Amino acid sequence: MTRDLHTENLIDFPCDYRLKAMGRQSETLETTVLTITRKYAPDTPQDNVELKHSSKGRFVSVNVTFHATSMEQLHNIYAELKDHPEILMML
Fold first, then answer.
1. Domain range for residue 48?
2. pLDDT of residue 5
């Protein structure tokens, strides 16, 4: 017997949520990820952003922790990040 598990049931909103967006090393990637996140979570402080560079320095992951209020908010952030040309992958 299989069960259809919906993500909405796995996250208790509101909550602090951490997303990770990865892309090629660039001067604008961090700003891009934070700007898109702040569009839907405007109170996200700069201090909630962490960068991790790949061992060869070609790629970087941008981790942002923000206050998530709904699944719609998460979908909007992920959709906009997914469509941005600087973003290669998200977790």
1. 15-90
2. 46
